[in-house]
Amino acid sequence: MKNAINAFAILAVAAVLLHSQALPQGPYKTTFPNGAVLELLPVKAGTFVMGSPATELGRFPDEVQHEVKIERDFWMGKTEVTQLQWDAVMKTNPEKYNQAWYHGDALPMENVSWTEANEFCRRLTEQEKAAKRIPADAIFRLPTEAEWEYACRAGTTTAYNNGKDFLQKGTNCPELAEVATFRFNSGGKRGRFNRTKQVATRKPNAWGFLDMHGNVAEWCDDNYTIITPPVPENEKKSKKSKKQEPPVVNDKASEKIIRGGSFMSMPQFCRAAYRGSAEPVTRSNTIGFRVVLATQPPPPPVAKPQ
Known about the structure:
Layout: H1 2-20, E1 28-31, E2 37-43, E3 46-50, E4 66-70, E5 74-77, H2 83-90, H3 114-130, E6 138-141, H4 145-153, H5 174-177, E7 180-181, E8 213-214, E9 217-223, H6 233-237, E10 256-259, E11 276-278, E12 287-288, E13 292-295
Parallel strand pairs: 7-8, 9-12
Antiparallel strand pairs: 1-2, 2-5, 3-4, 5-13, 6-13, 9-10, 10-11
């Protein structure tokens, strides 16, 4: 009986520990010693159509529409990572500026490579695990391209996540201005002195995410890949010989995806479906990132030697 009681007590303690490290049902919020607050919003698993329709103004050929299933719930940064958050995690010397071009605690962190953004995620994971705020199978990382577009769209199918489309080239694009800092509202007259703006100064999308369009473009985890459109059923069954199209060459295979456009971007490059890319070592004052928190699938079973 005594052994049974002890076993029950051990299980109860283990349950408490696991519960204390469980991810929340709602937003995830952590406060750093320097006063920075990082807030992530929950995103439920689901299915959506990624890419843009052929009729969308400003569309590029690599935005082929296709259905994507997001298999797991995840949490994503409400805003782009700010400089105060960066300094807290990367332990930047407060007496020395970080490498951003435009300095300010509430400005998005920019001029960071894909590699450096991943190092931020690694250190943040270590910190939050040490504080027992996340379970052992959870990590902070960059979003996948599909996760980014899913969260950006928040159920919309339009060019921008406020339910509006890009209507005319050569205008100041008022349909984008309410949700984005971009070329036409980030500087002085005639586009001079463009620069980043404080995060969370524009309207959020339906799921609460801010600055998904503009301010700084955002690194994603993926390599750039070309999406091949599906062959229509009537063409599959056709026996008529057709002229063979030359194969598409993916000359950006070594580059990482960047999404959302920046304070320097024209409206067509801020659309939800636009796919930018850059080498992972690239640093630019137009590129930053936001983080995702997710639990990882269990490792595959290890085959035992016979």
